[in-house]
Amino acid sequence: MRTFILLSLTISATTAAWNQHQVQLGKAAAAGAVVFCLSTAPALGANVEAGEQIFNTNCAACHAGGQNVIMPEKTLEKEALETYLTGGRNEAAVRIQVTYGKNAMPAFGGRLGDEDIANVASFVITKSKFGWDDDAWNQQAGKKLGKTGRDVEAGEQIFNANCAACHAGGQNVIMPEKTLEKEALELYLTGGRNEAAVRTQVTNGKNAMPAFGGRLGEADIANVASFVITKSKAGWDEDL
Ligand code: HEC
Ligand code: HEC
Predict the structure, then answer these.
(1) Which among 76, 100, 143, 149 has the fewest CB atoms less than 10 Å away?
(2) pLDDT tens digit string along 133-146?
């Protein structure tokens, strides 16, 4: 689906001038918005937030921040789960290990119900996708980022309405190399990959990117900048 949207955007942006294709791009932007909305639903209906509580109560003593205080190489990071978890990195494998234990890890089958175990497994797999990065996690969970005081969720709406036509999925339909991915922002964004630099570019525009200073207020620009930086940390991953 993402490939399809990007392809149609690329075709409409390159076959004719931007102005003549606002209608088509508007449709594509709406499609992009659908993808963003779907992206917040956790897989399999497990309750990831409930899983977080179970984790803090039962697992964090040994696995705070996704680490492992007893066997330091056996973390809950993506690569370690792929390497060490019996059955590979998936929720069913986590459920089995939590239920029955393994070596120095105790069994939780007698202490936690099936639903709690499913939720905590979903939490572990979801966090491993984000590299246990709290900012990316807060954004994905739809929480506000206390650290910066920005409203990332509001920023997502601004993005869908104003930016997704050219930048759906963090891509760039006009200058394909100048994406909103981490590496591209580090390379091309004037001032480097940070919120202030995004705010400046959104306010003033740059080459084929229009200026939004006259159209969006400062709070909106701050929120959309925070959304862009946060998404770049999570690799604009839409499956999560
Ligand atoms: C007393 C410490 C302790 C507690 C509490 C604990 N674990 Fe573990 N955990 C371990 C150890 C030790 C291992 C490595 C086991 C092995 O492979 O020998 C491990 C491994 C894992 C792995 C596989 C990681 C890998 O890289 O192999 C997962 C997933 C996991 N734990 C999830 C959980 C969850 C979820 C909870 C809470 C319900 C939990 N653990 C509670 C000690 C603990
Ligand atoms: C009409 C298409 C268009 C729209 C709409 C648009 N941009 Fe852009 N954007 C571009 C182009 C083209 C560039 C590359 C500018 C250059 O460096 O020449 C760019 C670059 C960027 C960059 C730097 C990326 C990089 O790798 O250099 C950021 C950040 C950015 N845009 C954010 C936004 C945000 C946030 C919005 C909405 C408020 C937005 N853009 C709306 C076309 C657009």
Answers:
(1) 149
(2) 776 666 565 554 43
